[in-house]
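Researcher: Batch entry, complex prediction.
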Amino acid sequence: MLFRPDHRDFRLIGYYSGKVIFGVGLAMLIPLVMAVLLGERNESYAFALGVGLAVSAGRAAELFLYTRHPLSTSHGLAIVAASWLLAPVFAAVPLLLSGHYVSYLDAYFESMSGFATIGLTLVNDLDHLARSMNLWRHLMQFLGGQGIVVVVLTILASAGGRIGALYTGEGREEKILPNVVRTARFIWRVAVGYFLIGSLLLWLAVWSAGLPAFTALYHAMNLFMAAFDTGGFATQSASVGFYHSPLVEAVLLPIMVAGAASFALHYQLWQRRGGELYRNIETRTLALSITGLLIITVVGLARTATFVDLAPLFRHGFFQIVSAHTTTGLATVPGRLYVTDWGVLAPAMIVSAMALGGMAGSTAGGIKAIRVGLIVKGLRRDIRKVLLPEDAVVVETFHSTTKRILRNEQVRAAATILLLWLVLYLAGGLVGLFYGYDLQLSLFESTAAASSGGLSVGVVRPDLEWPLKVLYIAQMVIGRLEFVAVFALAGYLVAIVRGEV
Amino acid sequence: MLLRPDRQDLSLVARFSGRVLLGLGGVMFVPAILAVAWNETNEAAGFVIGACLCLLAGMATQLPPRPRRAPDWQHGMVVSATSWLVGPFFAAVPLYLSGHYSRYLDAYFDAMSGLATAGLAVINDLDHLALSVNLWRHVLQFLGGQGLVVMMLSFFAVGGGAVGMYAGEAREDKILPNVARTARFIWRVALTWFVVGVLALWAALAIAGMPVWQGLFHAITLFMAAFDTGGFAPTSASVALYHSWLVELVIGVLMVAGALSFALHFHLWQRRTGELVRNIEIRFLAASLFALFAVAVAGLASTGAYTSTEALFRRGLFQIVSAHTGTGFNTVPGRMFVTDWGELAPAAIVMAMGLGAMAGSTAGGIKAIRVALTARSVMRQLLHLVLPEDAVTVATFHSGGSRQVLRPEVARSALMILLLYLLLYLVGALTAMFYGYPFDQAMFESTSAAAAVGLSVGITGPNLETGIKIVYILQMWIGRLEFIAVLVFMGFLWSAVRGRT
Amino acid sequence: MSDVRTRPVARGRVLLASLLIVGGLAGIVTLAELLRHPLPDTAPGGPPADEPAGDPRAEVTCDEPVPREGQERSDEDAASASRQFVRSNELYDCPQQFDGRRVRYRGEVVGAILRRADGAWVQLNDDVYADALGPLPAHRDFRGGNAGVGVFVSHQVADAIEAIGGPGERGDILEISGVFHRVDPATAEVAIIRSSEASVSAAGEPLVDPALADRRAAAILFLLLAAGLTVAERIVARRR
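Model: Structure tokens for the complex:
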């Protein structure tokens, strides 16, 4: 029994999506200023046009759709999904006008990949791309990344009831709006704090890798945005391999991990509650799974004799696994080598790492550590239940900010979403198979797109068949918004046609 | 708080496992007599030795005084797990003595494969195997298959609480009276099918041009392999040997009959055919067979493996049915799946194998009921996203002759077992990848072993690495017993060591 | 407002609104397509466009022994005997076969020169933008992503490089000869070439990107529209 949405519902969705588009327009001012300063004329026109379009659309929505009606959860979800679909339309305009994309679809793919912090790219000749354009690619990751954290922490987690449970496995009881503002402010404060420290460190590292000082600063800022928001775009086509520097990689590692840590955890650390770090179910799961996957990767790489010495093996194996597990997608190795030189076990571990992903409430994608942790706990409880006498009471607890009791619905919700993730990965893999890519390649790429992992073995390239481009875009949105918001939007669309009055 | 099993428990488990061995030993006299009749002296000696070992071991377990306690379902579980582990050990004796296996492990592998109705074989030179031994391989499938059904219908379904959930339906009957009644019914059905199926196959083989007596032998062995969804074949060419669509058709019908649950057979026996169209499992199976067949045809058509429509449908349909029912017959040499079938069609076969057929049949895999219940529960959770928060919906499904309400615990346990199966498939694939097999082949073979199917792309053979052999044996055992019995068995061992007295 | 609360939307109005939104989005796409760089009418040379480079589905066979140079031959021999350049794609397709072998390679210096104590790293791209067609901003003939190899060169060679490829600049083309390593024994870098000889074979040049007048006009137009709407919104907001 669906209710057909109301006049006000559309107004609300349009009004708030307009605000987001307006924000994207304002953000475009940054590359616009840079293009003007660097004398990149055509690029500056492109950004001016982008700003003009986005700001016009945003202000028009403000003018004509103004409403003070309160938001409900389903509105919030639909707004999120709608903004994630609409914002790339505007962000893609300057990208297309850069002349480095074959079609609007490619530019849309690229901006979706940026906003969703994926890192797959369809750019032609990245190494000759104008600086302002390259900055915009990276800036989209920052906007999308921090934006998704706001969304996750406020709308999804505070939705309460079923959606909250479906999302994080815990239902909070707070209202949305007061919380949004406070949470958002905290998130941006943390992000800016990290930005200053991280960019500075990266600047020093990149500088010492041999780049001229100003180029190094530019690279450092871009790298930071790609790493902290677990995006994975890179300034150069060779990604992190370009720098040939263990120091740069070493600085990137903690930034990626910080990006994959949930903001709830950042908050705890901010409050100097360091104990949370090793008690939290998510950090534990993450640490265990990174260690496990790393070990198997090392075994695999050792068997194929890709690396003879232990030090390079760990350096590249560890970076790749962390980059995949945090769903960043920066690489120190040309992607083609995963297929031709890394054997079968190591790439499989990279795929698993991407599929598992980081923490809920961070910019990382994938299944998320909380779900995996809850399911493992749930399994443990089931097994104990089977072994114990029928009337024994089995209680399993987990630690997330405080000690909590594992409830049945949490496990079920976590398992449901996990299953949806697997189906999403597999569905993309199947379509890849249909176009003749082998299982390894198509599963790698489909997982990279859906989990926002963003590492690539070369399937995603400008020549990619357009249905696959569309499919990967869909996977990016669905994966980024963790099904819930997309289904809510789909529900709205169904309700328009089928709903009862 | 685990209780250490006392002498009574141990004696109960030993006693009932011993009875299984006694039965096995008794059956072994059948091929022994045939071997004498066929003048296969050495093989006859092998069977007699095997039978005597079985009987000796079985008798020894009956020696301790009869325990005072009646067995409960936990004992049943442990007995099942033990029998399926120890049974192949004794059944392998005549196989090993046939001289077609280089090591005892190989003979054990084939015996396990037979009893678990998997159908993977590591035998050397099958085409020159003595008739009596060949018959024994197939009899193992019949014993394992029907025995498993008895176990599923009696122990599993009545476990109450934790275990009943895992079967997807909880019955409230007592064990023993039910076991006897159920077992009698099962054997009656199996024998009827045996007579009808063998006659039909015999006729089909005669039409296909086979000499009469050889035809009877092939008909009997093929029937046992098909109806118990085993997948051994009397010759290495499997069903492709006969070059006859009629034989394939008859086998196809038998495979489907074998993949139907005995509950459904019961309803059909009672002339309640309405169950055929209403049962949730049947519906799911039909849909999934159709969908996977469509995928396979799409894949085969795009690679151009078969130009004629008849060849495409005949090969494609037979392979999909053979995979989905967990049988594992080929009409295509296994290597061709890799070299000639492209990417999509083998993927469809792997999915068919992974899904499996109905619970309470001899088929393996995740089982239709679990997938269907999971799908329904997921759909319902998603529906709740778009419904008002306070909406109440009830999901129902049709099974066992009546409409039942889908309870959250049932859905959750179905989902958990489903995830465990996926994990089992992956672990096996990882092992093969460790030995350097490519991902797609490793996945194919591992799924085939864990879902008790028996299709092979050529990894399984006498030269298979020992590590993989052991993993496949474990996969067959765990997959066949659907985790629960294995978990209880592990718990039993664990508590024997660590439990409190 | 009270009548709005109970009045559901008519399907016709929903349809109209959806059409409006779709129309607006289509307008943006059309506008962007109109204002993009002029695309080339004919391919300005290079490998034919219908020959996709780096298709991951292509069968790659690595078993043939590399016909170029064996390790056993001396540097001078190798360099003079082989006039053929190896492609980066070949190196990545068959790293085991090329590991430790002397190769000749040619590519455009891009990004930056990374100066180290005993030499410098340069990224040499050998894709179609480096050599055959020139950088994309010069012709807008789309041929896929970049491909290149990291090369370690001596300080003298690094000093000789004048133009570094990047935004607005076509880099020098460097011809090198050196040993390919799957994993560099000294620095643990992956898939790189340590060059022993290198020379600049073609000088780079700045790229000219003529200003697009129609794009400028459109940009100004929409900036004005945005400004106008912003002002209007402010006025209305103050009245609310």
